[in-house]
Amino acid sequence: MTGIFIYGIWRHLPNHGGPPKLYLYVGLATLVLNTGLETVSFLYRNGIFSGHGTPRALVSFSPEGTFAHPKSRVAILIRVVLPRPIKFEAGQYVNLWMPSMGWWSWTQTHPFIVTSWSRGNLDSIELLVQPRRGMTADLLYLAGSASGHPVSFPALFTGPHGTSQSVDQYETVLLIATGFGIAATIPYLKKMIHGHNTCTLQVRRIHLVWQVETLGMNNLGDLKYFFKPSSNKADMVQTAESLLNPLLQDDILDKGYVRNRLLSTKLS
Amino acid sequence: MKLRMQILHISIYVANGLVQDKTPIGRHQRACYYQGTPDFENILAVEASGDRIERLPGIQDEQGRTLVMGK
Question: Could you tell me the pTM of the whole model?
């Protein structure tokens, strides 16, 4: 379609050269250059032709979810193992392509926020997915049929895309999330707690306000994957405690990085 | 004087299903369930005031900037 459009423009331009055709050539050169750079970046980051293998997506979902009702608000976790370590900033996303998911999945890419964060490069990234229709419903079906074990699929991605909001200059940060929007706040929380513990950020207070419809397992499943609870307790409040505690526990200077950093400084 | 070092506080507002208006989570008292919807005007005013940050007495400690992010 694009080719036909460009050919149509070219045919309607005067034949004697000059600025009109020059503008078209400049536009085409920019398009070719940009596409070429994106292709090289795509091949490099996905490890194609490198001998390191291509990315694998390990898909799992909340065992409390309703497998018989794939459109319910159960959370799917995708861990993408990267062939090359890549730096991701908080708030960035990737477009994921999983061609083996179904008949038409090869025609689709889906954008997902990266919930992982590290000061350095990441060997793997975690994505939280809200099942809806199409590929995400297929993901839930296939992951559910694996009896709780993660299912591995070949995957390719583009990214990281998007910009990251700077949190360096703020003393107080108020984060507001609704439902699955919690996914976007998690990497910022990790970054800010790390920054506070290492005295590299000015932040002194973070308040996360999360709105959910009900206190059902499905909503708790949202958090469960982020915070990796040690057990599957039946009681909702107890489950939430196990979800929230790891981040809250990490947010203690005495047990955190500053003391470790001082000790390592003394040892060296 | 005991200076609080923890900076993360979590408030989960549940529209339906909670019996009590406020249910603390765990022993750390830094995460809590609330029944209903958040009063954003009040929450924003409290956070912007900087009153929830403990400051050392006798030391000039100017209040910093506040960032609000939503998703």
Answer: 0.78
